[in-house]
Amino acid sequence: MADLKVTLIHSVAHRLPKQRKIVEALGLKKVNHSVVVRDNEAVRGALFKVAHLIKVEEVK
């Protein structure tokens, strides 16, 4: 499986607490901060929940 580069493009201010926790669990801190995570079902589910806040790119 490949890795995914996840970038926070919108602020989590004024978002649901569950969405804030998901963004924090992914390791994202501030807007334009990026992390590389393993591509698996659990991560895909988390990304789906906050898809409107992030940008995802596949990294090889």
Automatic annotation (TrEMBL):
The GO molecular function terms of this record are: structural constituent of ribosome
GO cellular component annotations, sorted alphabetically? cytosolic large ribosomal subunit
Spell out the InterPro entries in the cross-references. Answer: Ribo_uL30_ferredoxin-like_sf, Ribosomal_uL30_bac-type, Ribosomal_uL30_ferredoxin-like
Q: Which organism is it from?
A: Secundilactobacillus oryzae JCM 18671
Q: What is this protein called?
A: Large ribosomal subunit protein uL30
Give the residues annotated as coiled coil: none
Which superkingdom heads the taxonomic lineage of this protein's source?
Bacteria
The alphabetized list of GO BP terms reads: translation
Q: Alphabetically list the UniProt keywords.
A: Ribonucleoprotein, Ribosomal protein
Question: Which family, according to the similarity comment?
Answer: Belongs to the universal ribosomal protein uL30 family.
Listed under subunit, the entry gives: Part of the 50S ribosomal subunit.
